[in-house]
Amino acid sequence: MPEMISIPRKPMIVGVMGSHGEKPEVREQARLLGEAIARRGHVLLTGGGTGLMQAASEGAHRAGGLVIGILPNDRKHPMDGYPNEFVDIAVFTGMYEGRNVINAKTPHCLIALAGGAGTLSEIALALRAGTPVIGLNAPEVSFAGSEEIVRVSTMEEALRVMDRILTGTKTTN
Predict the structure, then answer these.
(1) Integer angstrom CA distances of residue 122 from 16, 40, 42, 129
(2) What is the pLDDT of residues 36-54, one digit of tens each?
(3) Given a cut of 80, is residue 13 above it in pLDDT?
């Protein structure tokens, strides 16, 4: 039985976005990231599917945290792998890629891991909405007139930046 953690009355929501399939070491990084987010008392938000989403969800779930999955399908039209078994709150949107707007605008900050077009979409939407984005092995992207991604090279660095963002401390690369 995992150690139970206490979630604050109005917890911070941290989004972890990434691809469906990645190398085992990147999945492990996502799992450890989910675990660290939960241990800090934050709620994890993912796309609720397989790959890095599942790994981050597993880490948070096993640490006793709360996991929200923003799913592309609706309840009447199941999709393989959605929701993954570690999602506590499944939000069936029926919006497919349109759910990326929810993934980008809901969290207090977003950590983007290795990913493809879907992750790029979430990064762009988050930056446009003013959601702070931390890029850990994330696709290279920049947009004129928008906030920049805070690029980090380690999970520990990503967590330090996340902590500064969530406590309102100025972040720098």
Answers:
(1) 10, 24, 20, 10
(2) 999 999 999 999 999 999 9
(3) yes
Phi and psi, residue 49, nearest 5°: -105, -145
CA 35 to chain centre: 12
| Domain locations in the chain as residue ranges | 13-167
Please check whether the domain covering 13-167 is classified as CATH 3.40.50.450.
Answer: yes
Here the tokens at position 59 are: 């880490």
Quick one: 9 exposed, middle or buried, by C-beta within 10 A (0-12, 13-18, 19+)?
A: exposed
**11 to 37, 79, 103: CA distances (angstroms):** 11, 29, 17
Residues β-bridged to residue 133: 110
CA distances to 140, 149, 150, 156 from 161, in Å: 18, 11, 8, 9
Instruction: Give how far Cα 117 sits from Cα of 61, 94, 121, 125, 163, Å.
Output: 27, 19, 6, 12, 27
Helices 24-39 and 52-62 cross at an angle (nearest 10°) of: 40
Question: What pLDDT is attached to residue 85?
Answer: 98
Distances (CA, A) of 159 to 32, 82, 118: 11, 27, 23
Structure confidence by residue, pLDDT tens digits, 112-170: 998 889 999 999 999 999 999 999 988 777 777 667 899 999 999 999 999 999 998 65
| Residues 159 and 144: beta-carbon distance below 8 Å | no
